[in-house]
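User: Here's a structure from my thesis project, written as structure tokens. My advisor, Dr. K., wants to see whether a designed sequence matches the one we expressed. Can you design one independently, without my sequence as a hint?
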């Protein structure tokens, strides 16, 4: 039986029990799912279940999905030795159906849209979540409309079309695509047009809610113990906010003792969340975003405040890394551990090295790095870096 109680507005505190809700009915603020955390849950509750949605008591509903979640947690012993810690593990979200972590949240979004009787998933996207939206829309017999900056990777743009999604390529960067998306959404004629269901991060409660099982799966793989730290690449902030929410819920229900420190990793060419953490302020839009990590080039993240609050509450910190360092780190993981990671995870790996050098980790610590997408989505960028070094 689900412990879900409804959605609560993070701005005004109003509540709604509508499973297909996107924004607060009172003030249009962001919604967050609420649960009865006094529910009788334990490790035994989940032990005999399988799949990415096995923790159904702590979800608003369970989508049919297509195999998302239940991704491997892979030991990285050479990295542990190099960082001087007890264990390093990589949570490999590349195993999701379209090859990225965004599949988890989009599975919930598509199910919510179906329940709300919408007919189109719509979003501005750097690429990965547009591909996910197109795939899950196709699965749910919905349309999808993605507004994509011209500098998004060819693979993501191609796969949006392969899945049957409508795509508008906007010249420029993510904020340019988001502006066109918002203009089109506002200018849509009402009655006789298709009904858009917003699929972007924090445009509904479902994207960050879908990220919670990442943490549930990590602690189960660690025999129901919390890791010491999780290093998460941060763009909009939905993933790190979801991981922290999952950690709090498992601790509050008594499933796991304690919570990990969370570390937000961003490229130093676009690091609004890290800057906010260092300045002890709320995130401000980044003036001139410039990084090779397209998925993290989000100058005004929708969940920037949620991400910063999650890191602060966990006792962690932010870490900003140079583009060349993160590319080198992605290559090092491939060469030392055999794992193909995204350049976004390269930021997490480079950040972990910097944190270790700064004495942030102890010699017995267990550190988890989150790989958010398939490495071959960014292979040309990493290979170009190696070629510049004469490799």
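Assistant: Designed independently from the structure alone:
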């Amino acid at each position: 039986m689900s412990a879900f109680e409804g959605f609560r507005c993070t701005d005004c505190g109003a509540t709604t029990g509508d499973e297909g809700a996107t924004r607060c009915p009172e003030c249009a603020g962001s919604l967050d799912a609420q649960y009865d955390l006094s529910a009788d849950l334990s490790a035994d509750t989940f032990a005999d279940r399988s799949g990415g949605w096995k923790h159904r008591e702590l979800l608003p509903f369970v989508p049919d999905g297509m195999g998302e979640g239940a991704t491997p947690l892979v030991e990285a012993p050479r990295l542990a030795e190099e960082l001087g810690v007890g264990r390093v593990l990589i949570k490999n979200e590349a195993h999701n159906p379209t090859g990225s972590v965004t599949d988890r949240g989009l599975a919930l979004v598509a199910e919510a849209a179906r329940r709300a009787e919408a007919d189109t998933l719509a979003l501005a996207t750097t690429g990965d979540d547009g591909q996910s939206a197109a795939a899950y829309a196709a699965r749910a017999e919905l349309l999808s409309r993605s507004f994509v900056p011209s500098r998004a990777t060819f693979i993501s743009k191609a796969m949006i079309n392969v899945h049957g999604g409508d795509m508008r390529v906007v010249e420029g960067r993510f904020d340019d695509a988001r502006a066109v998306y918002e203009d089109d959404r506002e200018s849509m004629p009402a009655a006789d047009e298709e009904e858009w269901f917003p699929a972007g991060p924090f445009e509904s409660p479902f994207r960050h809610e879908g990220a919670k099982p990442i943490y549930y799966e990590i602690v189960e793989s660690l025999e129901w113990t919390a890791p010491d730290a999780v290093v998460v690449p941060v763009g909009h902030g939905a993933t790190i906010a979801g991981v922290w929410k999952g950690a709090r819920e498992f601790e509050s229900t008594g499933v796991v003792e304690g919570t990990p420190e969370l570390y937000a990793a961003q490229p130093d060419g676009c690091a609004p969340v890290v800057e906010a953490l260092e300045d002890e302020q709320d995130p401000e839009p980044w003036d001139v975003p410039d990084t090779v990590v397209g998925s993290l080039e989000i100058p005004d993240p929708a969940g920037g405040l949620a991400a910063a609050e999650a890191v602060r509450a966990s006792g962690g910190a932010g870490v900003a890394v140079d583009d060349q360092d993160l590319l080198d780190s992605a290559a090092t993981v491939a060469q030392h551990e055999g794992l193909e990671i995204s350049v976004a995870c390269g930021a997490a790996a480079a950040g972990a090295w910097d944190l270790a050098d700064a004495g942030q980790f102890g010699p017995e610590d267990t550190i988890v790095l989150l790989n958010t997408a398939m490495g071959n989505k960014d292979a040309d960028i990493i290979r170009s870096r190696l070629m510049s070094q004469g490799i």
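When you compare it with your expressed construct, this may help: The mean pLDDT is 95.
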